[in-house]
Design goal:
By secondary structure, the chain is mainly α. The protein has six helices and no strands. Helix 2 runs antiparallel to helix 3 and helix 3 packs antiparallel against helix 5.
Length: 154
Amino acid sequence: MALAILASVGTSATAQSDFEPSPTVRQYAPRLVEIMNAAQLQHLKLWFAGKSKNWELAAFELRQLTDSLAQAAVFYPGIPVSNVTTMKDPLLSIADAIDAGDGRRFTASMRALTDGCNACHTSLERSFIAIGLPTDQPPPANQIFAPAGKAPKK
């Protein structure tokens, strides 16, 4: 679906500008490491948004993470389908926890998602890439994770 959206945006932009790309131009496909780096950052931000009970930001980061995982599956068909489909339940569980504003269910669902990430890495003989839940100490960052109006005082 993400690929269909990207294709229609590109077609629309080409039609509007009367720009015709060369027939030899290739569609850009991000390297898997780029997609996974984005997913790792989205996982981190999702965690801190949920722990801060900023459910709107958590929902946004969950969508971003889901899109990154879908992108990996679309661009890299060598990833077994079962690796992708096993992520569905934890992602849906996180979405349900976000909708309910349930911090305990969110934490448990994030653990399941993280386990799924590591199982995927192991199945692809990349077990040396291990993901964990972030510590309770936020990393040095310039993003505020608390909901608007509830930002910590400096």
